[in-house]
Structure formats: structure tokens, C-alpha cells
Amino acid sequence: GNSVTQMEGPVTLSEEAFLTINCTYTATGYPSLFWYVQYPGEGLQLLLKATKADDKGSNKGFEATYRKETTSFHLEKGSVQVSDSAVYFCALSDLQGGSEKLVFGKGTKLTVNP
Amino acid sequence: DTEVTQTPKHLVMGMTNKKSLKCEQHMGHRAMYWYKQKAKKPPELMFVYSYEKLSINESVPSRFSPECPNSSLLNLHLHALQPEDSALYLCASSLDTSRETQYFGPGTRLLVL
């Protein structure tokens, strides 16, 4: 079945450092790809998405490019802030029984220190 | 407006209680979802409703009973839960169930004693 593999955390960075969180996927067909963020004690928020190969999703300084050749959707940010501390989930859409399901990676906890 | 609301925010219940979780959206979305999230884990899909009909049940125990009374509301009725059912319960909605972005609510944190 379709699956998502995300780099193991936790990741600890200093403010203004460069961030990369790796995400690779296994899928039949061409799923949509997502990054969701979960701040402490909250639900999930959509961070960005891409629906086809070579699409770049971007939001709040975060970017990810849908790479079909490497089956990857790595999350990057050039300069992280303390407020970016959260858990980040990579996900893909998986069609089952006529309905789309989200398949999540295990999540990567990011801590940014001042 | 991409808001999904959930009530209550927190819930403590005993194993013999009956309680309900409520989820509401006014975005005109026709697909709604219940997820369960344990600490330090990703969300796990429980149920999917499409146009007010149950389309996916991920083999969830019958002590969890979903209900979709109309296109804006989704309930999860709880009865005779076990302590291992303690978790964050997340509701989500999307325009429909076909490759559309899911928007999540803030969740209900449930503790079963």
C-alpha cells in the first residue's frame, strides 16, 4: 500500500538556521502531497501542498517540491524562528473505496532555540 | 474561512459513561472525518462521511458510533470506553473525498478513567 517515510526526530536548531525535513513516499499513481504542522496542544494545520510532479508548495517561508523521480517532498525553510517549534507531518492522499484517505508519516518534532 | 470547530475541548469520562463529541464546519464541505491521535503518533483515520453517508469505517470498535445529522455537523458518540481510548480526537472536513485538502479542527482531548 501507499506509505510515507519521514526523517526521525527530534530536530533541534538555533534561530535563523536552515531547516530540512526529509520525506519520501511510496505510491501507485500520482497522489497529492501535504505538509501539516501541529503546535503543542493543538490540532493539525495545513502548511502547504502539491498536487502534481514538479509543483512547489510554499507558505510562511516553508517550501517543498513534488519530486516524482526521487519520490520525495522534502520540507525546507531558510531561516527558522522560535515560533516554528512544532511537530511536522508529511502526508499523501490515498484513494481507497472511492474516498481519499490521508496517509501520514510518523512526524518530526522541531525545536528552535533562541 | 477554513474553520472546523470541535466541542468540548477536554472531556473526562468513566468507563460506564455515555458522551458525545461534536464537530461543525460551515465551509460547504461534503466530506467529514474522525481521527484518533495518541501522544507522539500521527493521526489514525477512524471514519469518513461523504455527503452525509458513512463511506469508510476503519474497523473501529462499536463503542465508537459516528453520526452525521447534516452536511455541517459530525458527532462521535462514546459508550463503555476503555482507558486505552484516551487520546486526542480530531475532526476534519474537505470539499469532497476526491483529492481535496482536509482541514482539521483543534481536537477534543479525551481521558477515560
Describe this entry's structure for a reader:
The complex is a heterodimer of chains A (114) and B (113). With 114 residues, chain A is mainly β. Helix content of chain A is 0%, strand content 54%. By secondary structure, chain B is mainly beta. Helix content of chain B is 0%, strand content 57%. Chain B contains no helices and 11 strands. In chain B, the strands form 2 sheets. In chain B, strands 2, 4, 5, 6, 9, 10 and 11 form a 7-stranded mixed sheet that branches. In chain B, strands 1-3-8-7 form a 4-stranded antiparallel sheet, with no helix packed on it. In chain B, strand 5 (44-50) and strand 6 form a beta hairpin. Chain B is globular and about 35 Å long. The A-B interface holds A 32, 34, 36, 42-46, 49, 51, 89, 93, 95-102, 104-107 and B 6, 31, 40-43, 45, 48, 50, 55-56, 88, 90, 92, 94, 97-107.
Low-pLDDT regions of chain A: none
Helix % of chain A is under 10%
- The general outline of chain A is globular
Shape by Cα distribution of chain B = globular
Number of extended strands of chain B: 11
Précis, in short:
The complex is a heterodimer of chains A (114) and B (113). Chain A has 114 residues and is mainly β.
Task: Label this structure with key terms.
heterodimer; A: 114 residues; mainly beta; 12 strands; 0% helix; B: 113 residues; seven-stranded mixed sheet; four-stranded antiparallel sheet; 11 strands; globular
What order do the helices and strands come in, and which of them pair?
The complex is a heterodimer of chains A (114) and B (113).
Chain A: E1 3-6, E2 11-14, E3 19-21, E4 23-26, E5 33-38, E6 44-50, E7 56-59, E8 62-65, E9 75-77, E10 86-96, E11 99-104, E12 108-113
Parallel strand pairs in A: 2-12
Antiparallel strand pairs in A: 1-4, 3-9, 5-6, 5-10, 7-8, 8-9, 10-11, 10-12
Chain B: E1 4-7, E2 10-13, E3 18-25, E4 31-37, E5 44-50, E6 53-57, E7 64-70, E8 73-79, E9 87-94, E10 103-104, E11 108-112
Parallel strand pairs in B: 2-11
Antiparallel strand pairs in B: 1-3, 3-8, 4-5, 4-9, 5-6, 7-8, 9-10, 9-11
